[in-house]
C-alpha cells in the first residue's frame, strides 16, 4: 500500500465530533484539485490550493508551502490560558496501564543488545539508573514479577542469568518483522516532520526523542537516514548531524485535519442530496464525551475555531509570536505530529525539544490546556503527557497500529503473572 494513503484521517464516524475543532465549519470549501508530483520549482499557486479552509491569502514559497498573511487585526502579546485543566480518568488510566509494561520494555531493550538475548543479573544491575531503580531493589525479585515474560536460569551457585520466555521472544520477532514491513511508512513520517519544520532540517538527536512515538528502529541514524537520498540526507551542522529534506512532495503536504474536514464535507454533501428540505445546520460544537466547559470557555474555543485554518505545512516564518494566528498554526502542527505517532500521545517534554524547529511558545503546556477540545494533558506518570483527544474513545485508542497490537499481547503476558504463581503453588 502507498504509505501516503496510510495517513488518512481516523474513522470520523466513530468520533464524538465530525470535524476537527480548530477548523471552522463556517468556511466554504472549494473543489480539491489534482496535485502535481513535479518538483517544487515548477509548481504554481493554483495547482496547490486545496480548499478555502486553509485561508484565502495563502501564497506559495520556494518550498511549495503557503506564506501566511499575518497582517490581520489580531492581538499581539502573550496569549494567556482561559480554560481550567480538568482531570479525566479515562486518559489517566492509559498512562497507569503502561507503568509496568514500560519497565518490561526497558529491560527487554537492554537484553536484546546481548548475544543470544541472554544476560546475567549482575550485568543488568549496571543499568539501574536507566531502569529508574534504586540500589535497594533486587533484580531477581523484580524479574520474578514477570514470569511470563522473563525466565531466570541458574548456571552454578553464584551465576544467575535471564532471557525471554518463548512466548515473549515470539512477540519480539513478530515486532521486528512488522517494523521491517513498515519502513516505507516510517520514512513518510520523517518526510512530513521535516516538511513542517521552518528550515526543513532537524537534528538527529532531536528526532531520537520521537523514536518510540514514531516507531523508528533503534539504528535509524545508520539505516533509514542514509537509504533514501531522494527524500532526505544527513548533513553536518555546528550542533551535530541533522536530517535535511531534499525533495518537497505536495501530495504529502496535506494534514490529517484537512483530510478529516474534506471527508466531513463530502459526507454532508451526500446527506444533502438524500434529504429534501433539510433544516440548515447552525455553527454549534458537540463536545467530546467527558468534557464539560463553562459558557465563557466555550465562547473562547468558538472564537479560536473561527480563525481560518493554517496548514502545518505552510511557511510560518512571518507569523508573529503571541498572535492568535501563530497559536492556530502551532495547534495544527501539534495535531499533525500527534496524528503521526503510534498511540496519538506524546510526552510534553518531547515537544519542548522542537521549539526552534516549529517556533513553539515557551508556554506550550499552557497552549495544550487552552484547547481541551483538541488535547488532554495528563499529569500521571514520571513526566506529563498530551493526548490527541479525538483519537480516543474512553480509554481506548480508536485505530490501533500493528505495533500496538503486539504491545497489547505483551501486556496480556504481564497479566499472566498471578496465573503462573497460582499454578506453581498448586504443583508444590
UniProtKB/TrEMBL annotation:
InterPro entries in the cross-refs: PORR_domain, PORR_fam
Residue ranges of domain PORR in the record: 87-413
A GO molecular-function descriptor: RNA binding
Signal peptide (UniProt feature, chain positions): none
Pfam families named in the record: PORR
Listed name of the protein: PORR domain-containing protein
Organism per entry: Lupinus luteus (European yellow lupine)
Amino acid at each position: 500500500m502507498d504509505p501516503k494513503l496510510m495517513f488518512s484521517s481516523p474513522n470520523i464516524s466513530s468520533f464524538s465530533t465530525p470535524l476537527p475543532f480548530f477548523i471552522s465549519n463556517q468556511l466554504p470549501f472549494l473543489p480539491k484539485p489534482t496535485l502535481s508530483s513535479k518538483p517544487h520549482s515548477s509548481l504554481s499557486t493554483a495547482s496547490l490550493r486545496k480548499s478555502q479552509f486553509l485561508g484565502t491569502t495563502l501564497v506559495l514559497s520556494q518550498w511549495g508551502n503557503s506564506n501566511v498573511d499575518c497582517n490581520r487585526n489580531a492581538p499581539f502579546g502573550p496569549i494567556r490560558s482561559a480554560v481550567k485543566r480538568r482531570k479525566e480518568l479515562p486518559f489517566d488510566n492509559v498512562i497507569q496501564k503502561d507503568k509496568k509494561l514500560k519497565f518490561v520494555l526497558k529491560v527487554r531493550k537492554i537484553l536484546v543488545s546481548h548475544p543470544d538475548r541472554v544476560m546475567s543479573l549482575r550485568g543488568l544491575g549496571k543499568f539501574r539508573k536507566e531502569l529508574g531503580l534504586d540500589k535497594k531493589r533486587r533484580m531477581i525479585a523484580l524479574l520474578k514479577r514477570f514470569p511470563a515474560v522473563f525466565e531466570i536460569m541458574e548456571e552454578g551457585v553464584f551465576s544467575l542469568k535471564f532471557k525471554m520466555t518463548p512466548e515473549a521472544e515470539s512477540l519480539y520477532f513478530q515486532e521486528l518483522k512488522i517494523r521491517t514491513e513498515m519502513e516505507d511508512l516510517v520514512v513518510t513520517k520523517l518526510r512530513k516532520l521535516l516538511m513542517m519544520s521552518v528550515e526543513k532540517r532537524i537534528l538527529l538527536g532531536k528526532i531520537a526523542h520521537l523514536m518510540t512515538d514514531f516507531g523508528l528502529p533503534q539504528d535509524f541514524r545508520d539505516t533509514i537516514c542514509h537509504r533514501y537520498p531522494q527524500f532526505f540526507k544527513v548533513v553536518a551542522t555546528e550542533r551535530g548531524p541533522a536530517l535535511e529534506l531534499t525533495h518537497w512532495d505536495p501530495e504529502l503536504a496535506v494534514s490529517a485535519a484537512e483530510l478529516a474536514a474534506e471527508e466531513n464535507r463530502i459526507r454532508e454533501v451526500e446527506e444533502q442530496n438524500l434529504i429534501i428540505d433539510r433544516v440548515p445546520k447552525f455553527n454549534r460544537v458537540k463536545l467530546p464525551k467527558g468534557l464539560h466547559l463553562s459558557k465563557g470557555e466555550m465562547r473562547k474555543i468558538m472564537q479560536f475555531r473561527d480563525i481560518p485554518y493554517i496548514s502545518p505545512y505552510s511557511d510560518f516564518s512571518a507569523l508573529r509570536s503571541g498572535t492568535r494566528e501563530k497559536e492556530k498554526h502551532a495547534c495544527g502542527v501539534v495535531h499533525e505530529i500527534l496524528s503521526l505517532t503510534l498511540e496519538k500521545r506524546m510526552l510534553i517534554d518531547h515537544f519542548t525539544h522542537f521549539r526552534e524547529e516549529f517556533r513553539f511558545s515557551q508556554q506550550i503546556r499552557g497552549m495544550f490546556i487552552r484547547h481541551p477540545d483538541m488535547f488532554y494533558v495528563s499529569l500521571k506518570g514520571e513526566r506529563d503527557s498530551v493526548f490527541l483527544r479525538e483519537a480516543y474513545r474512553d480509554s481506548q485508542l480508536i485505530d490501533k497500529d500493528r505495533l500496538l497490537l503486539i504491545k497489547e499481547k505483551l501486556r496480556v503476558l504481564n497479566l499472566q503473572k498471578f496465573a503462573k504463581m497460582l499454578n506453581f503453588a498448586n504443583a508444590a
